[in-house]
Automatic annotation (TrEMBL):
Involved in DNA repair and RecF pathway recombination. GO terms for cellular component: bacterial nucleoid. Keywords: DNA damage, DNA recombination, DNA repair. Residues 1-79 form the DNA replication/recombination mediator RecO N-terminal domain. The lineage of its organism: Bacteria, Pseudomonadati, Bacteroidota, Bacteroidia, Bacteroidales. This is DNA repair protein RecO. Belongs to the RecO family. GO terms for biological process: DNA recombination; double-strand break repair. InterPro entries: ARFGAP/RecO (IPR037278), DNA_rep/recomb_RecO_N (IPR022572), NA-bd_OB-fold (IPR012340), RecO (IPR003717).
């Protein structure tokens, strides 16, 4: 049995039994890990209060080759997320981001400190964000692509004919629209969208419907190029709550 102390992001909680839940973490030192946490809400069980989705903690884990789940020895809050309780747009995004990160990070078998640091710094920025909130989840998914080695390789503009469509699957321009293709109008906008960053996302004045279309394309792109990435269950909830994300 060994002990590891590491920063970790809280991804998801799954009920395991009447007495325990499994809290899924992505840690900087050991990558994805599941932990067994008591369900009791007594004052002595302060551990559970630190382990809310998207929070960042410093945690000491007991690891054993004979057990699939780690045991928590000690935990301290690093970056709690308060804005999700006061900002409707961030509250809706939190539902999406926690499931998205849980699904995609649970497929990674090795730690990646650059990936961890990028997600951590992005969520810290998101907590204090006042402009561009409605576009944050789009920008986050876009800028996360290089960390999984699947950033789109956009062909030379000169290779695109008038009315051509960009294929998300083949990453090339096609003379007619096929499955997993953008429309000609969407293809025209793609180079501009790919330049979106946290510094510029407030200037992209999308409607709620347009954000929904872009999100669907981004998730389809992830599924096409990361075959273990599943459909997300939270999207209907995100769309229902999305009305409150209409501000920039």
């Amino acid at each position: 049995m060994g002990y590891t102390t590491t920063p970790a992001l809280v991804l998801h909680r799954t009920r395991y039994s009447d007495r325990y839940s499994i809290v899924h973490l992505y840690s900087r030192e050991i990558g994805y890990v599941g932990t067994l946490v008591p369900e009791t809400s007594s004052r002595k069980n302060a551990v559970r209060e630190h382990l809310r989705p998207l929070s960042e903690v410093e945690i000491t884990l007991s690891l054993s080759p004979q057990r699939d789940l780690a045991r928590i020895q000690e935990v301290h809050s690093l970056h709690p997320r308060h804005a999700v309780h006061t900002d409707p747009a961030k509250g809706a995004q939190a539902i999406f981001l926690s499931e998205f990160l849980y699904r995609i990070l649970s497929t990674t078998q090795t730690p990646d400190d650059e990936l961890y640091d990028y997600i951590s710094s992005s969520l810290i920025l998101w907590e204090g964000l006042s402009r561009g909130v409605a576009n944050f989840h789009l920008c986050f998914l876009l800028t996360l692509l290089p960390y999984f080695g699947i950033a789109p390789d956009l062909p030379n503009e000169e290779a695109r004919g008038c009315g051509y469509c960009f294929s998300l699957q083949e990453q090339c321009y096609l003379p007619q629209r096929e499955a997993y293709c953008l429309s000609p109008e969407e293809t025209q906008h793609l180079p501009l969208f790919l330049r979106m960053s946290y510094d510029t996302m407030h200037g992209f004045a999308y409607s709620r419907q347009q954000r929904g279309v872009i999100l669907d394309y981004l998730l389809a792109y992830y599924r096409l190029h990361l075959h273990s990435f599943p459909q997300l269950k939270c999207l209907p909830i995100l769309r229902q709550l999305g009305q409150s994300a209409e501000r920039n």
